[in-house]
Specification:
344 residues; mainly beta; four-stranded antiparallel beta sheet
Length: 344
């Protein structure tokens, strides 16, 4: 098994209003010897915004803002901006996050040239009900009963005058274009899905999503396979390019007598056709074991969302028990080699 070093807690909540309930699930991107962390900050009342912290190297805090970098502006994100991920494609930063209005949770995109000013592009995942999804997805194949269990909203179709939609979260772009086109991951429980080869986000129209969902079985990747991820899987960090393929650190969830346990997991996707899974670790890369991971706003959670590489060491930033931000590190080349011993 791979040796993983738990580096410990990196950021905790403060008395500042916008993050007095918790900090968690950060996006991360390396810039020279510095790392930009854009994290979910939660204030009392469970309203989230995105905070900012600058690291010197992978672990040392150089600067931390006392106000949110991004906060709610529109109805669709009125209850907050959650779980950011960040990549830079060409000269543009793509910041994805989950917008929550108190009823629906849907993947959004904002872009920036400098990580200071952002242009919100809005919701880019499908905005449909579970019933509409099932009508499309069942055209050619049977849908797993887990989709019913996780997405039916207890048969409630409307709340407070707002239609309940299919939740589509964990929106994560690949960090470069592949054959000149954009690829991204997203997640409708219980599986991770992929969108392959679009020219621009303008293509993501209702018609695009209707056609996509008619064949959604073709775009399922990293479905639950092993015991530690038997309940469902979800996107984690943006894919990392290696000489063997795209390394994907994702989260796997196992329902236990103590409730759901969230672990960090690892897989490898084909470099030119990332819809093809090459390899997967048959065990979690790391899991909750220390007090800061076992007890918090939500117990038993290691939720990886950002990663950077320094000198062949992969630093993985994660939300610990939905209350604090921690880091774990692993030798990148050893992880890649271990994965290739576990080809699909």
């Amino acid at each position: 098994m791979i040796a993983v070093l738990k580096e410990g807690i990196l950021l905790q909540k403060t008395n500042t209003d916008f993050e007095n309930e918790g900090v968690l699930n950060p996006a991360a991107i390396r810039d020279g010897e510095q790392v930009h962390l854009l994290y979910r900050a939660v204030q009392k009342g469970n309203r989230s915004s995105i905070g900012y912290c600058l690291l010197n190297g992978p672990l040392f805090i150089e600067k931390r803002n006392h106000t949110p970098l991004l906060s709610s502006e529109f109805d669709y994100e009125s209850q907050g901006l959650e779980d950011p991920r960040l990549v830079k494609i060409d000269d543009t930063y793509y910041l994805t996050y989950t917008a929550y209005d108190g009823i629906n949770a849907l993947g959004c995109l904002a872009t920036s040239k400098d990580l200071i000013s952002f242009e919100k592009k809005g919701i880019i995942v499908p905005q449909i009900t579970y019933e509409e999804f099932i009508k499309l997805a069942e055209v050619d194949k049977t849908v797993s009963e887990k989709y019913f269990r996780y997405n039916q909203h207890q048969h409630i179709v409307e709340e407070e005058g707002v239609k309940k939609l299919l939740w589509d979260k964990n929106l994560i772009f690949f960090p470069r274009k592949i054959n000149g086109k954009l690829f991204f991951l997203h997640r409708i429980k219980p599986d991770i899905q992929i969108v392959v080869g679009i020219e621009s986000i303008d293509e993501l129209t209702p018609l695009f999503w209707n056609n996509y969902l008619l064949h959604y079985q073709d775009y399922l990747i990293l479905k639950p396979k092993y015991r530690h991820e038997v309940s469902y899987t979800g996107g984690g960090c943006p894919p990392i390019e290696t000489d063997k393929g795209w390394l994907v650190i994702y989260h796997g969830v196992h329902d236990t007598l103590q409730g759901y346990v969230y672990s960090a997991c690892a897989a490898m996707l084909d470099i030119e056709s990332p819809q093809k899974e090459i390899a997967r670790l048959p065990y979690p890369l790391f899991f909750p074991e220390f007090h800061w991971e076992l007890k918090g706003e939500v117990n038993n959670v290691c939720f990886p969302t950002g990663a950077v590489v320094f000198d062949d060491r992969l630093y993985i930033y994660y939300g610990a028990a939905d209350e604090r931000i921690a880091c774990a590190s692993v030798c990148l080349s050893e992880l890649v080699n271990e994965l290739m011993l576990n080809k699909i």
